[in-house]
Amino acid sequence: MQKIRLAIAGFDQVGQAIMEVMDQHQDLIIQHIFSRQSKQDFPQALQSLPIHPMEQALHFKESIDVLLVCRGSTEDNPDNLTEYAAHFNLVDTYNFYAKPALLLKSIDSISQVHHKLAVIGVGWNPGIYTINQLLAEAVMPQATNYRFIENEWSQKMSETLAGIEGVAQASVYIKASPQSIQAILKGEGADLRFSDYQERVAYLVLEEGVNPDRIHDQVQALPNYLSQVERNINFVSSDQMTKLSKEAKAGRLIRTLSDNQELTTYDLSLSFNHPRFNQAHLLLAYARAVYRLASEGKSGALTQLDVPVSYLSKHSRQELLNQYL
C-alpha cells in the first residue's frame, strides 16, 4: 500500500500528539517535521525524528503530499498560511480567525492559481459541531438550537487574567449549566438566553501575599469580561490548577421542536478525555481527505463543511457501502 506522505509545520503539543497516534493510521506516514526549535532542544526521545528548521519547508515540498500546519499563535497566521498555500496541499489547524470568510477567499485564490488544495480551520468547535448543527437544522428546520460546551479552555480570557499584577497563573473554562440542560430536554428552554445555559469559570493562582479580594475586584472591573455570562471566580493552588487542565473536555448540541405538546429532540454529545489526541486524529482524517480530493483534481480552499464525510475514512467507497449501507 502506498502511504500518503505528510509533514508537520509546528511541533508543539498538537504536532507531537500527531506523532503519538500515527500507528493508528496505517495509510499515512510523517516524512518531515518543521520547527522553530532546533532538534537538540527537544527531549532525547524525539531527536531521532526527521526534524528540520521551519524555513527549510519549501526544500522538501516534492516529497510531501499534505502539510499539516500546526502553528496556532496569532503571529503565525494567516501570513504563513498564504505562503504555504502556494506550495502545498494543506490542512490548517487554527480555527479561531477573526475574519474566516476573508481568509478563505485569499487562500482560495492562491491555491487555485497553483493547483493546490487547502482545508482551513479544522477543529471540533467550530468544526465537527458546526457540521452536526447544519445537519440538525436541515432535518428539523423550525426547531431551536442549544449548544453547550464543557471545560473548554479560553486562551484569550486566560491570558487577560494572567496579565493582572499578582496573578501567577490563570485559566478560564467554558462550562455548561446542568439545570438548563434538563429544562431544555423537557421542552422548557424557550426563554433561556446564552447567559442562562453557559458560563465561564475563572481559576486563579495568586502570587504569595496577594490579597484575593483585590484581584477579585480587578477581574470584575475588566471591560466586557464575561459580560454575557455569570461571573465565577475561584482561587486555587498550583496543584489544583494542574488537575483542572486534565479534566475531560465535552460538548453537547441539542435541537428541540415542540409540536402539539410533543417534543422532538436532536441530541448529540461528545466528550474527550484526551483532547489533543482527538484533535490529532481529526487532523489526520482531514489530511487523508485533502489528498483524495486533490488527487481528483480539486483545488482552492475549503472548510470542514465542504468536505464529504466518506473522504475522511481510511476505507474505500466500496468498503463503506458494504459496511454501512
What's this model, at a glance?
The protein is built from eleven helices and 14 strands.
Describe, in plain words, how this protein is organized in 3D.
The protein has 325 residues and is of the alpha/beta class. Helix content is 33%, strand content 26%. It has a seven-stranded parallel sheet with strand order 3-2-1-4-5-6-14, sandwiched between helices. The protein has a four-stranded mixed sheet with strand order 8-9-10-11. A three-stranded antiparallel sheet has the order 7-12-13, sandwiched between helices. β1, α1 and β2 form a beta-alpha-beta unit. α1 crosses α10 (275-295). The two termini are 26 Å apart. The relative contact order is 0.15. The mean pLDDT is 86.
Write the layout of secondary structure elements.
Blueprint: E1 4-9, H1 13-21, E2 28-35, E3 51-53, E4 66-69, H2 79-85, E5 90-92, H3 100-113, E6 117-119, H4 128-139, E7 144-150, E8 152-153, H5 155-162, E9 167-176, H6 178-185, H7 194-197, E10 198-206, H8 212-221, E11 231-235, H9 238-244, E12 249-259, E13 262-272, H10 275-295, E14 300-302, H11 317-324
Parallel strand pairs: 1-2, 1-4, 2-3, 4-5, 5-6, 6-14, 10-11
Antiparallel strand pairs: 7-12, 8-9, 9-10, 12-13
Helix pairs in contact: 1-10
pLDDT averaged over residues: 86
Q: Gap between N and C termini, in Å? A: 26 Å
| Shape verdict | globular
The largest β sheet comes out as: 7 strands, parallel
Query: What's the gyration radius in Å?
Result: 22 Å
Beta strands, count? 14
Our estimate of the beta-strand percent is: 25-35%
Low-pLDDT runs: none
Strand order in the largest sheet: 3-2-1-4-5-6-14
Helix/sheet category: alpha/beta
Q: H/E series, N to C?
A: EHEEEHEHEHEEHEHHEHEHEEHEH
Level of helix content?
A: 25-40%
Number of helices: 11
